[in-house]
Amino acid sequence: MNSKRDALKVVRVLEEFRNPESLEGLSRYGISTKDTLGISIPILRDLAKEVGRNHALAVELWNTGIHEARILAGYIDDPEEVTSSQMESWAKDFDSWDVCDQICSNLFDRTKFALSKAVEWTKSEEEFVKRAGFVLMAALAVHDKEAGDEIFLSFLPIIRREAADERNFVKKAANWALRQIGKRNLKLNKAALKTAKEIRKMDSKTARWVATDAIRELTGANVLDKLRKSRPDKS
Q1: Which of 17, 35, 120, 139 is the most buried (most CB within 10 A)?
Q2: Nearest to 61, CA basis, from 113, 107, 5
Q3: Cα(194)–Cα(214) distance, rounded to whole angstroms?
Q4: Contact 89, 117 (CB under 8 A)
Q5: pTM of the model
Q6: Is 116 inside a domain boundary?
Q7: Rounded mean pLDDT of the chain?
Q8: How many domains does the chain have?
Q9: Do 72 and 144 share a structural domain?
Q10: pLDDT (tens digit, 9 = 90+) per residue, 53-64?
């Protein structure tokens, strides 16, 4: 198999779905239009099903620099074959929140490095790398059904530490992580709310937003009713 040749074939298929008219809409949502074809996520997911798992092809698609090819790479890569150095390299390439989120919540969160990268990346000075750390926390809270509560409890002080970061894509990801942890079970809901109330007392408009938005959702009737009916806490 020639991965570079196969990547060129996939890129040609992507070009057939090019939709320049959608780029203006993407821009309004803060999505980078650099090297972007304007292809919808459902189309990319369907294409990923046709291609199947292929680590080498995923790497070649990422290296094209094409926005949608990189999202597709996250769909088809094999988490078992992803290395720590690959994660670092791809994270440094993140230049748009949607690529960051798609890669972290469809690939990186399923790797054996997910926990360590979540903690490490939240210390980064790079906006999208730091966002990736919090997206990993949120994705793990949703997808890792076997993880114990202690993992997510360890994330809460980190969220509190970084809650005053004013950068838009960081604060929204920190808020997302806090909310997803608090929606995992009743024990974590209580802990997340405690953290949110601590954050709300900080002398920071950004931190207060992160906290207030999370408290609003985590104390909502829909969330609490669902948690009372869900599986027991995992300690």
Answers
A1: 139
A2: 5
A3: 11
A4: no
A5: 0.94
A6: yes
A7: 95
A8: 2
A9: no
A10: 999 999 999 999
Beta carbons within 8 Å of 121's beta carbon, 6+ residues apart? 91, 129, 130, 132, 133, 136
Distance CA 212, CA 26 (A): 28
Domain end among 28, 43, 77: 77
Structure token pair of residue 68: 């949608």
Say yes or no: 104 and 44 in one domain: no
87 within domain boundaries:
no
Name the domain boundary from 77, 108, 125.
77
CB-neighbour burial class of residue 147 (10 A; exposed 0-12, middle 13-18, buried 19+)? middle
Amino acid at 207: A
Answer yes or no: is 88 within a domain: no
Residues 166-214: tens digit of each pLDDT: 999 999 999 999 999 999 999 999 999 999 999 999 999 999 999 999 9
pLDDT in tens, 31-83: 888 899 999 999 999 999 999 999 999 999 999 999 999 999 999 999 999 99
Tokens of 207: 């931190």
